[in-house]
What does this fold into?
Amino acid sequence: MQHTIVMTGASRGIGYVAAVEALRRSRDLHLVVTTRGPGDALVARLARDSGNPQVGWVGAELASLASVRAAAAEVGRRLDGGALPPLTGFVGNAGLQLTRADRATVDGLEETFAVNVLAHHLLVRLLAERITTPARVVLTTSDTHVGDLRHNLGLVPAPRWRAPLELARPSTAPDAGTATAGRRAYSTSKLAVIHLVHELARRLPPGVEAVAWNPGFVPGTGLTRDGGTLTRLVARHLLPLLARTPLAVDVVTAGGHLASLIGGRPAVATGAYVTKDAEERSSAESYDRARERELWEAADRLCGLA
It folds into this structure.
């Protein structure tokens, strides 16, 4: 059956590989990718590399709630007008890691939380009523949410949970302008993604699965592009060597894992946490129904949905 999936974070790294593989594996797939600017060049590359021309784009600056709303409205118009076949999935793969935690979006929100959590919450909420079952919503998280040495090699501080309305505000702490604060905001946002998936699993209609996907440690994705010169050099030239060891995964393998998840494999229960290509338990901290409900309500309020 011809069907549509909407995807963020498909322009580079894991997301690009996953988009190409998903298009290559399913000739029935129509993929709509979000882009910050004109997406014609990206769409042309995806079609060329996959051999599947059924790919389009919609503009979306994920750090702007108005832009996210406009993107969802445009996808809705194409679905309603028959330009796209039924919507059967959403992949929220875009992710941002900054070297500070005091940077504000046009909406006055802390940028990491706005992009990694709120943009995807808003897209899912606005597209949910148009989803045709069976369907799957996949949000990319990270094992940095665990916060221990084994999962993040000491490169990212452990998350520090606070009330969601506080997490959404640019930090005013004395260290807010440091890389440590920025990376902690990242790990905390990825913990929030898992909370969001758990709540989505309870609220999405029957037949729509919500899955949190952790790619593992994948050097060379460009995630540290906001870092200083030394950080970028290490990320570009030294960390990729770890992909030859059991400590890390290369971009192509990780992209293949995400493509499989987009295609419905492995079969998992809604609310699942999948690391690489297998379901497992996320951190003990990530299972907290009160937090999950509070996050959902705060996200609705911040996105103007309450």
